[in-house]
Amino acid sequence: MLRHLVLGFSFLACIGCASVETVHVDIDASPKEDPKQASVLEKTLGENGYYYLLLNYKLVDDVPQIHRLQKLGTRLTHYSERPEIEYKYLIIDSKYHTAFSFPDGYIVFSTAMLNSLASDEKILCVLAHEIAHITHRHGVYFYEAKFGLNKSEVTGERAFSLATQLGYNRAFELQADQTALRYLYRAGLDPQTFIDSLRQLEHFEKEDESLYQDDVKAGILKENRKNDLLERLSYPHLQNRIVYCQNILPEIKQTEKVLYNPNDFQF
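RE: above sequence
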């Protein structure tokens, strides 16, 4: 079966100059438990990505929504392998649907994505996937494949590009999906909702494509700047991800336990 293979994929590293890197990922591997704080490299990537976002995009100071994200996120991170990380939730003002994460606990939603996910359950699904990227240290792994352990190469732009391009690595996505399903199940949620959320992303992508083409025709933006401006960030491999999640869901229900206890959370 697909999930028992160690998958190695080449991906386009859109950080600085373009080049092709090969990353080998065992999609069955769980995040490593680590009682220590994030590494210096992980913290540097997260902080630099955050400051780049702060300088180049409009952050929305919506206290109730941020509190909502914190409350929902805690329900998942409490049962993750890295609950000691301080997760930070940010909202950017954008009519395009996107969500991504920086190393060391930064999770970003666009206003369009947050407003279109009508229920807490759907938001939890997106959060679970982004938290999984962080607990697996995918951003750090991506950076090391490109630059090694050289922290001097870390810039805000590179950290930002890294975060928004993680989804183009198929192995990272499948591994994050599997872990997200496990987090949702541990937190007492129906992981089937995650598969429904993936199908919803297909609709978001079509909406964003239409908006993007309208903006290009209106001269609001240039087509070759779409990634830099967070426009039309696509969701690659969606069909493969849906099939993969459907196949692995029965095993997750057999091997995981519901750990959720409302008394664990005080807000």
